[in-house]
Amino acid sequence: MIILLKDKVNENQVKNLTNWLEGNGFGLHISKGQNHTIIGLIGDTSRVDMDLIASLDIVETVKRIQEPFKSANRKFHEDDSIVDCGNAKIGGGHFQIIAGPCSVENREQIISVAQAVKASGAGMLRGGAFKPRTSPYAFQGLHEKGLELLSEAKKATGLPIVTEIMEAAHLPLFEDVDVIQVGARNMQNFELLKELGQTRKTILLKRGLANTLEELLMSAEYIMAGGNNNVILCERGIRTFETYTRNTLDLSAVPVLRRLTHLPVVVDPSHGTGHAYLVKSMAMAATVAGADGLIIEVHNDPPHALCDGKQSLTPEQFDELAKGIQNVLPFAVR
Ligand code: PEP
Ligand code: MN
User: Hey, is 203 helix, strand or coil?
Assistant: First the structure.
């Protein structure tokens, strides 16, 4: 971090600032020019409040030269992280397809979809039990019953289960869940992230609808700061002015994140596009772009799905997609 001081500052003020910085454990590299003084901070600046320093009378500007995320940063952890998801692994060459319905609706539905996606090569089963819906009148999920049905599907197929949490108080219900999803709408629910940081559960953290990749990484940092390094990032599309697609799937997020972080990155082309006909091509593109996995919505009867039927694949369409992924995986840019 570099602090540029205003011209004509008095020595006392500079001394106060440097004493304070040294008192906070930083090494200082001070360079005095003809008009300006520049202070270089040496040490872990991830905890420094940049705005506070910038607001000081004698400070002209403050510039970070290192990213504000530390645990998630590839600079301090060169190798890809491999994250455990029940009996599956993701990252570092372990590619996973997570598939299943948007919401768990009933026993027959979740078991039949679980069996079908497993037969096509999915390594994990998804299904929402607590659903974050825009309308309070829309189907909100089966809650505890939904989690029980997911456990039954896990028993029946051996697939690890992935499902969304909406509040920390529900954590005791998630004991049998292998991967806890934090949805786009909760990406910056910092109290929830802190609670999840206290667990050692694997967390699938989805990018918020209008969040930058740095904000996504800072949210991962919240979880990791608590000691939980089992984090998977998910690109699921962001809000733009485009209306033909539900969101704009930012596939450049994959190589950007892979450069910045060692955490596995998965792509959700279902929410990223909102249309079943776009899911296969975007899934293949995400795979070639270097994603560590995909999360795909699959429903036994999409026209009658209680949530997100329009973007859900039939088991047959999913089978086609899974074959396409196997074909392009050798061409993935890593
Ligand atoms: C979901 O995965 O069903 C979901 C609600 O996703 P998102 O949080 O990305 O909208
Ligand atoms: Mn959905």
Answer: strand
Closest Cα to atom 4 of ligand 1: 183
Q: Which CATH class is domain 2-63?
A: alpha beta
Give which of 160, 161, 228, 165 is closest to 192, Cα–Cα: 165
Give the CATH fold of the 83-331 domain: TIM Barrel (3.20.20)
Residues 163-195: tens digit of each pLDDT: 999 999 999 999 999 999 999 999 999 999 999
Range(s) for CATH 3.30.70.1140 in the chain? 2-63
Report whether residue 271 contacts ligand 1, using a CB cutoff of 6 Å: yes
Atom of ligand 1 nearest to the CA of 206: 9
Tokens of 170: 């529900």
pLDDT band at 43 (very low <50, low <70, confident <90, very high): confident
| Average pLDDT over every residue of 19-26 | 93
Give span(s): CATH 3.20.20.70, the chain: 83-331
Q: Is the pLDDT of residue 305 over 90?
A: yes
Host H or E run for residue 60: strand 59-63
* Residue keyed to tokens 């979880």: 223
- Cross-strand bridge partners of residue 98: 124, 295
Answer yes or no: is pLDDT of 280 > 90. yes
* Mean pLDDT (whole number) for 251-258: 98
Ligand 1 in reach of 102 Cβ (< 6 A): yes
Ligand 1 touching residue 236 (CB < 6 A): yes
Work out which ligand 1 atom sits closest to the CA atom of 236.
9
- Confidence band (pLDDT; 50, 70, 90) for 239? very high
Tell me which of 181, 203, 207, 297 to substitute to probe ligand 1's pocket, judged by most ligand atoms within 8 Å of the beta carbon: 181
Q: Which atom of ligand 1 is nearest to the CA of 103?
A: 3
Longest dimension (CA), the chain: 77
